[in-house]
């Protein structure tokens, strides 16, 4: 099976530090790996409505929701590239992940079974020198992967506030060179370790 990486860009700023770091890591992927880059700013999702108890979900068509759903289920590897905003993922990234809850309930999609065994990765840039402040973001992605039976490749952390600052973070740039080369383990909830 050909590996297909989906890079979901969740920044409100184009070509920000998170995207720069994600692209540096993606440069290391072999030429036979397919890459698709979707910026959530270019594919806006309406507010998520939880219809579990009120209505049936239907498969979207012809809009941003359909584009993101199709790209997600076609990917072998999903990379959430979101800057650290208030210690978690950006609002657009959170909305995208909220949609996963609805996609679990679309007849015929079998979203959970499709993603089981696939890999979720994260890339983020933060302005704080202490990486521990990114733990809520890491937890969001790890726990989402665990719920779906996915592998979790971890989160590539870079430091930078002003555009381009991450290019001064030698540690992050070094880690980017081998980030996608690792064999990620099956994700586990923290209480399972």
UniProtKB/TrEMBL annotation:
Residues 4-110 form the NADPH-dependent FMN reductase-like domain. The keyword Zinc does not apply. The keyword ATP-binding does not apply. SUPFAM superfamilies: Flavoproteins. Keywords: Flavoprotein, FMN. InterPro entries: Flavoprotein-like_sf, FMN_Rdtase-like_dom, ISF_SsuE-like. This is NAD(P)H-dependent oxidoreductase.
């Amino acid at each position: 099976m050909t590996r297909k990486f989906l890079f979901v860009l969740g920044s409100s700023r184009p070509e920000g530090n998170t995207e720069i770091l994600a692209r540096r890591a993606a440069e290391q992927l072999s030429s036979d790996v397919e890459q698709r880059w979707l910026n959530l700013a270019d594919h806006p999702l309406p507010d998520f409505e939880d219809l579990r108890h009120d209505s049936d979900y239907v498969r979207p068509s012809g809009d941003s929701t359909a584009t993101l759903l199709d790209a997600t289920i076609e990917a072998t590897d999903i990379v959430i590239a979101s800057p650290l905003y208030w210690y978690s993922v950006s609002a657009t990234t959170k909305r995208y992940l909220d949609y996963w809850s609805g996609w679990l309930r679309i007849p015929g999609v079998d979203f959970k079974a499709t993603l089981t065994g696939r890999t979720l990765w994260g890339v983020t840039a933060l302005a704080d020198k202490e990486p521990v402040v990114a733990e809520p973001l890491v937890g969001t992605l790890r726990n989402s992967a665990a719920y779906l039976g996915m592998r979790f490749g971890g989160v590539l952390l870079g430091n930078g506030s002003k555009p381009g600052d991450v290019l001064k973070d030698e540690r992050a740039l070094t880690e980017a060179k081998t980030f996608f080369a690792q064999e990620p383990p099956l994700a586990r909830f923290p209480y399972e370790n």
